[in-house]
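So, who can interpret the following?
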Amino acid sequence: MIGNQAQKLEKLVASSAQKKKSKKTRFIAITSGKGGVGKSTISSNLAYTLSQQGLNVGIFDADIGLANLDVMFNVKIKKNILHVLKGEATVADILIPITRNLILIPGESGDEILKYSDMALFERFMQEAQVLDKLDVMIIDTGAGIGEHIQMFLNAADDVIVVTVPDPAAITDAYATIKTIATLRNDVCMIMNQVKNEKEAIGVFEKIKKVANANIASSLDLQLIGKINSDAKVSSSIKQRALFTSLYPASQPSKDINTIAGRITQKLERNVLVTSNESGLSGLFKRLMDHF
């Protein structure tokens, strides 16, 4: 059923793609080996920062068990993407505008999404999803760990970023996550969160990279995309249900997020105009189908 559905979906996406040209959306999956390392905090602040730089940004909440993003953005989520796929809501009904060019997309896990095989509903969904075809970036906030539904998003993304903190248990979990991701792809980025300084971030990263090169594969391209300093302002902003990049723009963690955003923007500049089957929410679903 899924295979047949995927074929039909490909035809549907291809036919809608022929009608217009659109930007290619860059899909960035942010994941972690364990919970509590700041993955959703980083996802939300990074999305906000990219949007403040003039990019059209979507943030897809695929961390269903915890659903932190509504708290981060201080919004209420009533319906998510499953309601759309069941025909109980439209895409427009579930989208939550955070700023003028930042949209929260309340999601579901990949396996739940692909359980729905009603092509009529899927067709309507794909048409409605075109409202998001102008996105430059879609950040996918995955669940922690490495379950199958998380792997689907990691496979579909252009970039995978693993977040960890300089704690032995978190580092062990991050390494295990990288090891699993390496069976899907050979490029992984890392963000070192809650570090004292750049020196500590590089030191922890180099240890992980050395073990990975020795035990996973020398062909693995593991890169440190940035670090975020430990700062009481981050936990203070979370308690206030606010983004630290908005509340404390001059803080070191905000500067660190800006540095990471700049590196992502450089990657975006290498993107070219393509057909819209690589755009927005419909592009994400097309990729999920391809990797099922």
